[in-house]
Amino acid sequence: MSQPIESPDALLRATVVTIARRTAEDPRPAGALQSVLELVDNDEAELALDHLARSVDYHRIPLLREEYDRLVAEAACLGSEDSLSETDLEQFVID
Length: 95
Hints:
Helices cover 66% and strands 4% of the residues. The chain has 95 residues and is mainly α.
C-alpha cells in the first residue's frame, strides 16, 4: 500500500514549523514565521513561500541544507521558483 503524497501546502507548513522551532531562541523572526503559517493555513502557499523568502532575507534566518532543499522542492511543486531566486536564499544555508 502506498503512502499518501502530502500537498505542497502541508510540506511548506512542516518546513516552516521546523525552521520556527530551530530558531525559537531568537524572537525577532517569530512574528514573520507565524504570518507565513497563517498564509499557508489560508491556502496561500505561493504567497507564503514568497513571504518566507523575504523574511529569511530580512531577518537573516539561517537555513539548514535540508530545509533549503525542501523549500526548493516545494517551490518547484508550486511553480514559484522565482520566490527563492529573487532573494538568493541559498546564501543563508549553513551546513
